[in-house]
């Protein structure tokens, strides 16, 4: 496994990918802590993975339902907006994107 | 009527004989919560429901409960009120159980001590200066202190077994796919698994009977038939049990001797015990951390504060770290080195267990490397949760069922837990063996209740 050192720029890149804002002290702290975690992960290089079927967490098939409307599961408009902080008439209000 | 420490089976019997009413039961536990929860902090939201029928249960706060706040112990979901019940909740209600309250956990189930909860940690009923374990710490402590006769928890890797071990209760993590995850707030979807925290094995069987089975709202919940766990419990079966040295590395002496004491009991009872060799759990720790972080970064991407919850600046430190590490292991250029490699070794762990189960029926090991730690000790570890769950992780990455049983107290008076890992979907025999151990071993769960009269 290739050794990776996380730089402060890496941390900022990851926080921007993850849409998270970090304080300066968090950047420093995470750089060290995530670095230590990655160092530990290098032990996987000790294991050979020949002859593996790429697969799964279990042995069986997914159990899929009919793709149909179930009326008793439909939410009414009031329930749909109940947990939203901002709405405008019957729309969720969000920050301008463009 | 003295109810202290009664199991669900006991309470059902008392209700049947009309020695206690369902209403009295609900009031009894409500009073106990009012009296003892300020010191323990097991509950996030105490429930004041109109529904007082049936046996009250405590539910980990990452199961959606219709009309009742469900926070996953996070600021982001502090005011979230689900519009539907998780399948686990629906099934319990249909079987006449009610929700006495929602229990504290590590925020988003990220952790092993409930110290990442945005609403303060849960204390260990055996020693208030120590943690109850986690992430289902509130559920485990509430059962140990008898603020509820039993509780529902969830496990991604260790989150039921580890707090059960540290709080001295029975914690069952079924096979991945045995119980529906629908309505369980997603942490790492290829591991997430609902399960039980109970005062004995019989209650674990009783609740699993209700929860197990197919669910059209969770594609991984399997259609295979559900055996009668309770009837099967009392059959006198003999098993072959495997012990693997790899699970005893860096484990405290007192925990090791607790496990050996239990093994001796099993030998005397006529079970065969064999030495086996398994992949070292230290590799499971890496596999689990990489895949779980990747799934966390994807599952927690949905929290944008638009349809429900607050926006992303309210994430706590642990969630931020996990999301970012997950984003990293999925990056172009690192995906093969981390995520893909981890998936391959995950498969290797499955094969390793499959091979082991050709020679043994069960594997027994310590549940945790130590007994309960002091509050604040987690700061010493950069990925504390994973380190404390190291012995639980192999079964979780393979999707196996496993159970924690409290077996003894260490020199500090803290519970020691052992775990039994079984074959996929063999909860039937897993519970049978656990029942036999419980019967031979007699761990005194009532002792700690002297402090919680």
Describe the model.
- The complex is a heterodimer of chains A (98) and B (453).
- With 98 residues, chain A is mostly helical.
- Chain A contains 3 helices and 2 strands; from the N terminus they run H-H-H-E-E.
- The two termini of chain A are 41 Å apart.
- The mean pLDDT of chain A is 86.
- Chain B is an alpha/beta fold.
- Chain B is 36% helix and 15% strand.
- Chain B has helices spanning 8-16, 22-40, 87-94, 137-144, 161-167, 201-211, 229-233, 253-268, 281-299, 317-329, 336-356, 384-388, 393-398, 427-441, and strands at 43-46, 55-60, 97-103, 123-124, 127-131, 151-155, 170-173, 193-198, 240-244, 272-276, 362-366, 402-409, 415-421.
- In chain B, strands 1-3-2-6-8-7-12-13-11-9-10 form an 11-stranded mixed β-sheet, sandwiched between helices.
- In chain B, helix 6 (201-211) packs antiparallel against helix 14 (427-441), helix 9 (281-299) packs across helix 10 (317-329) and helix 9 (281-299) crosses helix 11 (336-356).
- The longest helix of chain B has 21 residues, at 336-356.
- Chain B is globular and about 65 Å long.
- At the A-B interface, helix 1 and helix 2 of A face helix 9, helix 10 and helix 11 of B.
Q: Give the structural class of chain B.
A: alpha/beta
Low-confidence stretches of chain A: none
Strand content of chain B: 15-25%
The overall average pLDDT of chain A, rounded, is 86
Mean pLDDT of chain B, as a whole number? 95
The oligomeric state is heterodimer
Number of strands of chain B: 13
Total number of beta strands of chain A: 2
Which outline of chain A best applies?
flat
Number of helices of chain A: 3
How would you characterize the largest beta sheet of chain A? Answer: 2 strands, antiparallel
